[in-house]
Structure formats: structure tokens, C-alpha cells
Amino acid sequence: MRMSVGLQARQSQVQKLAPRMIQSMEILQMPTLALQERIEQEMNENPLLEQQTGDPLNPDEGDDEVPDKDTRSENEKELVVDNDHDNKDDFERLLNMDSDLPSTFDDSFRQSANRMSDDADRRHDMMANAQSRPESLNDYLLHQLAEMDIDDEVEQIAERIISTLNASDGGYLRMPLADLLPSGHSKEDYEKAEEALAVVQSLEPSGIAARNLSECLIAQLDSSIEHFDELSILIRGHLNDLAENRLPQISKKTGFSIELIQELREELHLLNPKPGAAFLETYVPNVTPDIILEQDESGEYRVRLDDDRVPTLFISEYYRRRLQASDCSDAEREFIKQKINGAQWLIDSIEQRRSTLTRVSEAIVEHQKRFLDEGPEAIEPLKMQQIADKVGVHVTTVSRAVDDKWIQTPRGILPLRRFFVGGTQTEDGEDVAWDTIRLKLQELIDKEDKSKPYSDENLVDELKKAGMTVARRTVTKYRKKMGIPSSRQRRDWSLTAS
């Protein structure tokens, strides 16, 4: 084999995404609120971009009117950057603009006194209505501790204990007491730590700073209640058997009847296994629908893009005029050309987003009419590739279009991804969505004989009778996802005994 060193020229096709194409895909993927922020950022960076302004409550009285694309005269057409021909046609058109246009331009928007006052009022209302930070678990416990008359050293250790508690963990003490004391601590120091722990455990909520589940539940029991001793026995020695519904074993070990054990279990369900979790800061995001789905008088669905808050953009007239100024240097002209290019790409990307999102939504609604009319049990299997083929775009375009988008329907506000579900085929060859199978599974379990609940194999047989062929492992997977316990855990032993 002969080896040689040399240069060779090869032709190959490599697909690359231009920066502007990446920008278009990013804008398509943005929900309405994110798009508003992106537009505001672009307007701060590109002085050629302007937006139609006016009173949002009375849009007919806008300060600037943007002519429709189809009705613009020859001189009002949008500028399109053409580097190959140095924008000869656009510059010629700019130089021949109507001389009756105003000779001076103010590139800044000056608000009226009333508008400035309204903006100030809105900002004040926003600050006044802002949600205050809720009190944390640690603050709540420290406030109670400060009101207690205890030894300073005990109080210091108690503060250390409180600092280790976490609301997301339910408020349990996971750190050994010895780790909260200095190295080489004495027996008296440890006794002080135990005293401090007892103080913290006496605070509200009841069961806080417990070291395990049994200690947490015992702390919530009132010694004066009926069955206090029986409840204590179950908590200390039989929590695992209760969780697995092994009531006969508990009855055999304790001598309690099945009926009493079931009654005690119901009382235990009233206790809180995670008392500190009530102080978790739950964040519920505000959902703004991007698409509005309405029904007309004939019952047909109409898709409307809710982009009223997205400003209408156009290229600044001031910079159009600036191009024909005699003192416009080459560097300034090149700068304006680049900004025109960026502005036009943004405007086109927003328009493309509007068109794609509308067409994709219409195709989804057309496919899922039964779901919208009849409810979740009527949803049909749908893949993104089906919508992509129908709309005539790539499947990744559909994925970006529905990502983080919400649609307002007669059945509530739903994510667009909710309409895409997998499925299987019945024995008759009919497609059935997994959501339909899950609803049927829930129905079977709700109606089963609790003295002899269905096993997963039994559920497979019952689904097959309904025309749904599903594997046992699939039934097990969906049962667990739905939070449905096993057949042994669902069994009602009182019915079995009777």
C-alpha cells in the first residue's frame, strides 16, 4: 500500500442554519409574554424599529397609523435589504418621496400628561397588589421560641435545631443532636440538647422536628382521645403493615378486630405526616392563552390568535428620511442598512409565527373535535407528524409551535401539547388513545368488588372485553402513574370477613 501526502478538492453538501433562521425558530417557540419581552429588547437595540402606539382601550385613536401592506402606495412599501444591487431601487424610491411630508421628525415618543399619570397609577397599583413573601417555617418557629422563657443555652441549641428544619422535607430533624454540639461535648451538654429538642417539638405545628414518622404521628395524638393506646400501638409497630393493607397480620399480632383496625386507620389518616410542608412556597404560574377557540352560531370552531398585546412593528420614517440626507456618510448608510435588515427579519419572523401557529392550531382542533365536544374520553390518538403533514411543515416546526403554548377552549385553558396523545388499536383495527384506556381503567377499578379486587391480569382481561388489547406491564405502569394501589392494598378486609 502506497501512502502519499497531497491536497484534494471535494464537493459535499452540509446543511447549516443561518442566524436569521435560528432567530425565526426561536420566535416561533416563544409564548406571547416572552415574545413581548423579545420585541421590547429588540426595540431598545434597534432604533429603526417603531411600534404603533395609542390607547389600548380605544385603539381607533392611535398616535401612529400603520398602513396595511396591501394598501400601501409605491413610496410606502417596506424596505428590503438587497446587498447584491446595493438597494438601488429602495434608495431611488426614498429620494423621490412626496415633498409634502413634514420636514422635521422627532424619533422619540412623548407621552401626554394624562398618559404619564395613568402609567404612574398603574405602577402604584402593581406595587400595592404585589404578593408579600409568606412567613417561612423557620421564622414561624423562631417567633414562637422568642416568646418562651427558657435558659439561654437551651434557646441557642433550639435555634440551631430550627435552622436545620426544611419545609420541603416536612419539617423533620434529619441531623443527629450530637452534630449540633461542639466536639468533645459533655453528657450535660447532650442533655441540654435533648431539652432544646423537646422545646422545639412543643411548638406548632404539632409533630415538627420529629426524627421519624412514628415520632411525628405520636406527637400529634391527644392522650385524652378514645383509642389512644391502640393508636400508639399501631404507630409504633405496624405502620408498614398498614401501608401494605396487611390487616389480618395486624389483627393476629395485636388481637384487634379487623373493624377496629380499619377505624383506627381512618383516624390515622387525619394526622399530618409532613407538618412542615404547609410552609412550602407554592408557585402557581399565570397562564396566558396564546390561542382563543370560539364557536360560531352554527357550532363550528374558530381559531383566533390572541396577540393583541404584541405590538405592530414598522421601520422608522425618520431613518427613511435620513437615508436621503446629503450629510449621510457611508458608515451611517451602512449602519442603517444593517438595522433595516434586522428589523425586517424580526417583522417577518413575527408574521411567520402568527401564520404557523394559526395553521397548526386549526389542524389540531379539526382532528380533536370529538374531544372538544364530548370530553377527555373521546380524545383521539394524534402525533405531531400527522399535523406536520397536514400543514406542510417539518415536524420540528410543529414541536416548536406548540411548545409552552396554551389554548382557551370551552373546556378550559389547555396546553396545546395536551391534544397529542399516543394510542393503540382495538381488535377491530380502531385507534384508541391512551387517555381513553386510562379512563376505562379507572372506571373498572371504581366498580370492582372490593372484597376481591382485580389484579393487573384481571384488568387486562376486562379491558380486552371492552375491545382494548393492552399488555399487563402497560396496565401496571398506568395504574402506578394514576396513583392506584395494588389489588392487595385495595382490598376491603371487612367485606371479606363478613
Q: N-to-C terminal Cα separation, in Å?
A: 89 Å
Strand content: 5-15%
Strand/helix succession: HHEHHHHHHHHHHEEEHHHHHEEEEHHHHH
Widest sheet: strand order? 3-2-5-6
The biggest sheet amounts to: 4 strands, mixed
Please tally the helical runs, counting DSSP H or I stretches of 4 or more residues: 22
Mean pLDDT: 79
List the helices and strands and how they pair.
Blueprint lengths: L18 H11 L2 H14 L3 E3 L36 H8 L17 H16 L8 H10 L5 H13 L22 H15 L11 H7 L8 H10 L1 H5 L3 H8 L3 H11 L22 E5 L5 E5 L7 E3 L1 H7 L6 H38 L1 H6 L9 H8 L3 H8 L3 E4 L2 E4 L7 E3 L5 E3 H14 L8 H10 L6 H10 L5 H4 L2 H5 L1
Parallel strand pairs: 2-5
Antiparallel strand pairs: 1-4, 2-3, 5-6, 7-8
Helix pairs in contact: 1-14, 1-17, 5-6, 6-7, 14-16, 14-17, 16-17, 19-20
Structure description:
By secondary structure, the chain is α+β, with helices and mostly antiparallel strands. Among the domains are: 142 residues, no CATH class; 131 residues, no CATH class; 69 residues, Homeodomain-like (Arc Repressor Mutant, subunit A, Orthogonal Bundle), CATH 1.10.10. 48% of the residues lie in helices and 6% in strands. It has 22 helices and eight strands. The strands form three sheets. It has a four-stranded mixed β-sheet, with helices on one face. Strands 1-4 form a two-stranded antiparallel sheet. A two-stranded antiparallel ribbon has the order 7-8. Helix 6 crosses helix 7, helix 14 packs across helix 16 and helix 19 packs across helix 20. It is flat and about 95 Å long. The N and C termini lie far apart (89 Å). About 9% of the residues have low confidence.
